[in-house]
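Ticket #423: bound-state structure for magnesium ion.
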Amino acid sequence: MTYQALTPDTLANYLRQVPELLTLLGDMDALDIVEVGDGNLNLVYFVGSRTNPERSVVVKQALPYLRLVGEGWPLTRHRADREAHALKVFGARCPQHVPEVLHFESAQSLIAMQHLRAHIILRKGLIDGITYPNLADHLSSYMAQTLFHGSDLYLSAADKKRAVAATTNTELCKITEDLIFTYPFEDHATNVYSPSLPRAALQRLHNDPAVSVAAAQMKWVFMNQAESLLHGDLHTGSVMVNQTDTYVIDPEFAFYGPIGFDVGLLLANLLSAYLSQDWHRVQAGQNAAQNAAQDPVPYQAWLLEQVAQVWDGFAQKFTALWAAHDASTGTSFMGRGRDDASLSLFREAFMQRVFSDSLGFAGCELVRRTLGLAKVAEIAAIPDATARAQIEVRTLRLAEALLLGRTDFQCISEVTDLAEECR
Ligand code: ADP
Ligand code: MG
Ligand code: MG
Ligand code: MG
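RESOLUTION: The complex was predicted; output attached.
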């Protein structure tokens, strides 16, 4: 069948022809189908039985253009193949944090997957001031499992090179190269500046050669450092949560790139949640006071703890997977029979370099979310233009310090201290 962007009606007909989904959904005449996509690129449908709420699936279909902009920004549907493949690979590496793929048809760019019924998008939860007790543990596990097992530290050299070749994602990487690493750092037509953002803050960033150089260096690392299969778009809108579970969705930007890119995007989005609470906690007003009475840890302190625990948990788990793998195979990336001191020195230097990369990428992501095309709701939805701009200025200050100082930070507490100073 030739590709067709589906509507609720045509999707119902499509689903009737897929035996595994028929079985799962039961009575096809009693289905509710609603389009719920809130992302920038694709159609997303919830499909559920009216008679049995346990029977439901999510259907995601790629459109042949960038949804955020419209048909004037064409895009191939290749990304659906990338996403389906990545969901399967990540699901095998970390099943507890990845929705299960139930059906995939490349010709329709269509993925049916496990419906996360009892979960919300993390970004929304963080705006609303909700804490999640397992969040940092789960996200650090997800990143350690997916990123370690895609790398040369685990795969054979041949398997790794095959994997690199099989996962090129030229178009979506180009979006990142332009919209994260290039346009936000110049006065580009696609940039969107918030109405009260002081021009001085903008010019300060755009006119600093050190910032331009640092952004170009991070872009180079992104384009040339094929370390592991990345999620590629690991912001807080790609995470779904509740009090017990954490799932990572939407890996359509997956490709072989630098490990620090996934880590850095996630850290940046947690930091953006942190800075934006200067507005949201005031808005929550009485509720915030009540929450504070119940919970002695202020919400922003909790957010900074997540930043610290995500990095420390990731570094610790990644290193532990690495050491355990070397021990079980009796060899290492360095070769056979290396002494423990050399092995641990190499691991420490490796993780320190991933840390610097992560901070550089976090800086780029924060600049891009402030000046670039795609915004984040925790800041862009602040209706008071002055308050919004104030948070954006702080965000840019933090971004600049991370980007320029990325190799100077020795540990994550220096980063959380800096975030506090930027408020
Ligand atoms: P896009 O690539 O367009 O950003 P996403 O995969 O992020 O699409 O999905 C858009 C939205 O659809 C998500 O923000 C979430 O609200 C919802 N969604 C996507 N996948 C699922 C799922 N498996 N279960 C529940 N909701 C989902
Ligand atoms: Mg998305
Ligand atoms: Mg699963
Ligand atoms: Mg997406």
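RESOLUTION NOTES: The pocket of magnesium ion (ligand 3) is lined by residues 91, 95, 98, 100 (CB under 6 Å).
TICKET STATUS: resolved
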